[in-house]
Amino acid sequence: xxxxxxxxxxxxxxLTRLRRLPQKSxxxxxxxxxxLDASLIAHVGICDQAAQPFVLPVGYARSADTVLFHxxxxxxxxxxxxxxxxxxxxxxxxDGMVLARSGFESSILxxxxxxxxxxxxxxxxxxxxxxRLITEHLLPGRxxxxxxxxxxxxxxxxxxxxPLTECSVKVGASGPSAEDEAQDIASPIYGRIWAGxxxxxxxxxxxxxxxxxxxxxxxxxxxxxxxx
Length: 228
Description:
By secondary structure, the protein is an alpha+beta fold. The chain has a domain of about 140 residues: Roll (Pnp Oxidase, Chain A). Helix content is about 20%, strand content about 30%. The longest helix has 14 residues.
C-alpha cells in the first residue's frame, strides 16, 4: 500500500482549515489515526455526472497513511470513484451527549475525521491483502478462520485506496459549563436545572449461532472483541 510521505498535518491546508469554531480543530495526525482505527463505518460522498450528491456507507480499514474500502465492481458510484471522481470520506465517533441549560448550548461529544481526495484502484496481489486488512479491521481474528475469497468474488469486488493527504479532524469535548450562558448559570430558575454529560459507548453482545453452527464452540477471538 502507498503512503502519503510528507503529508500536511490535519487542518493545515486551505481546503481542510476549520473556519467555524476553530478551537475544535485538532492538528495531530495521531488523533486522525486514533479516530480511523477506532471506527468501523465511514460515509463516502460523491457527486455523479448530473451533480447529484450521494453518500455511501462503507466498511474500511486504515493502512499506514491510506484508507481502504470496497464495494461492488458493478456499482456506478464505485466505478466513478475508481475513475478518479473527487470524494469526501468521513468518520464520526459519538462519545456522549452534553446537556446544557438551554437547547441552543446542548451538544454532542464527538470525534470526526474528514479525508478529501481521489482514490486509486487496488489490484493484483495487493487486492487480496487489502481485503484481508478490511476484514481484520471489522472482524478481528476472523480471516484465518474463514474460506478465502474466490476468483469470482474478487472480480466482483472493487477495492479503493484513498491517501490521508488532505484531512480535517474536529473534536467536540467540552462540557456544559464551558458552553452555558453565564446568565443561565446564575438564574434562580435555569441555574437549578441539572446539566452535565451522559456518556455513550458501543459494545458487542453475546454471539448467537446460526442453525448450522449449533454446538460449535464460539471462537476465543470473538469473546475478546471490545469497543473503545
